[in-house]
């Protein structure tokens, strides 16, 4: 079987709609995710790497997200009073059609989305996109100190592969160890079933007034 580069089209679920990220999304995305509680456990290199203002975030958008190697998405709410509002971002990057691998990452959400159906639905939509395109392995990784993110990845059903020690330098100059997880094509049906069942009982995010 061969893999193909997925079509960069919107992906629609019950809670969210993923749309290819464009430059004009920068101001609303900045408002949603650029906050210390999102960056404190390693996102974007940690709090020291957090953009100081919306203009800086916009300038760095193209260098931070994997436009050259994949498809960055905005995460928008798909229903309710905040329908269409940007609540975060996620990407299918490091796309390698020869070796049939991809990486779901660059993911951040407004804190109001944490613990809701947003993350599992995003992962369901992106893994469906990848495996339907013929990929064999989808990688998900995070800073090893990010216990919340690691628990969320494990809960998805991804297998823990190990720790890449001193993998990257954080914005404050310290070394980041990276925890690596993956889902293989033959594991995907079980993971998909688990995610689908989980979403049947998941809560919708509540952003009104936030």
UniProtKB/TrEMBL annotation:
InterPro entries: Acyl_CoA_acyltransferase, GNAT_dom
Residues annotated as domain N-acetyltransferase: 16-187
Gene3D superfamilies: 3.40.630.30
Any matching Pfam family: Acetyltransf_3
Name used for this protein in its record: GNAT family N-acetyltransferase
Species of provenance: Paramicrobacterium chengjingii
């Amino acid at each position: 079987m061969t893999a193909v580069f997925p079509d960069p089209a919107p992906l629609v679920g019950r809670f969210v709609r993923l749309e290819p990220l464009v430059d004009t999304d920068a101001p609303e995305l900045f408002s949603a995710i650029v906050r210390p509680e999102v960056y404190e456990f390693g996102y974007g290199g940690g709090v020291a790497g957090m953009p100081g203002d919306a203009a800086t975030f916009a300038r760095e958008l193209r260098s931070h997200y994997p436009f050259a190697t994949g498809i960055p998405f905005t995460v928008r709410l798909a229903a309710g009073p905040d329908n269409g509002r940007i609540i975060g971002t996620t990407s299918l990057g490091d796309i390698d059609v020869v070796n049939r691998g991809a990486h779901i990452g660059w993911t951040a959400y407004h804190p109001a989305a944490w613990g809701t159906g947003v993350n599992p639905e995003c992962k369901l939509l992106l893994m469906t996109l990848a495996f339907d395109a013929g990929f064999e392995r989808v990688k998900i990784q995070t800073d090893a100190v990010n216990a919340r993110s690691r628990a969320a990845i494990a809960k998805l059903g991804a297998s823990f592969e190990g720790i890449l020690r001193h993998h990257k330098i954080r914005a404050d100059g310290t070394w980041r160890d990276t925890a690596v997880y993956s889902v293989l094509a033959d594991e995907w049906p079980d993971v998909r079933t688990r995610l689908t069942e989980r979403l049947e009982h998941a809560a919708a995010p509540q952003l009104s007034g936030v």
